[in-house]
């Protein structure tokens, strides 16, 4: 907790220092660039009964130390429902370009698991206003329970790129501090629950009732926290990676793996497998991911605690159609359709439709409607308009 | 724990196997083609003129890791960006200015075929240029190359310092077929 605050402060301070850099260095500087993105959203959500504007500002600081070393940091600044400013460190890492096709990364980084968290989540990139149903809310509450939160953690990673005939193969491996059990430090988190990304997993041992009351969470659900910390609660590191094959410019298919112990004794694991696709043509983009998780939990059997594992799975598929290419008068208008499902525990299904209008390649006005059908819980419908820009 | 180690071992083996598969491409890398192949995979391709060259030099390492580019590819992209943003006069290529009449050289110099097909060869980020003049007119062509965003606000086509001579030569070449 303390560590976290200190880390955050240090980042903001160093970020501040970095911003001030170009003021004296001006044009002669080829080392620093200040980029990022931001968005403003109006959302009306049925179940939550909310109807509000929200805004985010996400500065990115890029620093080229020399030809081999590159530093990057991203902060997310937003306002929560109580009007308080929330700042989150999305990543702060250093890349070391070991040779032509190998990159080593150290620090806090977005885990190369699937493509959404590392590559598609910024709002000027994501064609939908919302995160896909299988992911965490990333700044707004949502009706679907995430399979995995956005995964950003502290550790090291290595990346390799290979040219195999006309295909490219991308390999990423990482090792990080990993998740920890939510119950272990419940009290510490009372004033800080906004940035806890949770993967909520249901333990059927306690009761067969799938409708276990949400309020009891912590008892009925072993909750695994993925928030990155600078400490590790057990000696086991989490590790994983991704292998992808790309036939550029149109196809990329990847498969990912994640494994980490989340309890203090390192006995309980969470494991995840994923498959992602990205198909790009001149008239459409089709993206999707499938994720399957296995979470260990202690289960009482014959009055004895034994380890059992529970699996969940979910997927999303998002199609973007550039209708402006077909009907000349529509300029850069596109239509987005997305479907997501989570199965087994916390079953739900979601449809999203949206229309995007691009003002230039990095600024977009999105209008979207989302309809979520939760099997054991209240359904959700929401409508939103978002203006998003990269800079 | 055993399982942990097994998985790590498999990962490492796999990584080593992939290293041995490495086949380096012998073709020279075209920066425009690399932009065509990579820069619209995740987001709309950002026009080159949006940033200065000194900014691109700091942004490209960021994209190198995201897009899984090699160092040589990044270099080729930066070289193309340099050409695309530097007026021909400012470069040490006086002959090119004078001999601008060769349309093939113009196509190569500005990497048009990195993103467009001409006579069946080239990239697909933009439409084929074979029939653009017969279908949309010479005036459209001239304006489009000078001001790529005039009719499509999210166009990824870079605004290049192409000279009037070069442009005329290209228009001649593309309408002669």
From TrEMBL, chain A:
Matches recorded under InterPro entries: Porin_dom_sf (IPR023614)
Sorted UniProt keywords: Signal
Signal peptide positions (record): 1-25
Name listed for the protein in its UniProt record: Phosphate-selective porin O and P
UniProtKB/TrEMBL annotation, chain B:
Residues in the signal sequence: 1-25
Alphabetized UniProt keyword annotations: Electron transport, Heme, Iron, Metal-binding, Signal, Transport
Domain Cytochrome c: 98-177
Keyword presence, Cell division: no
GO terms assigned for molecular function: electron transfer activity; heme binding; metal ion binding
Domain of life: Bacteria
PANTHER family hit by this protein: CYTOCHROME C-553-LIKE (PTHR37823:SF1)
Protein name, as recorded: Cytochrome c domain-containing protein
Organism: Paraglaciecola mesophila KMM 241
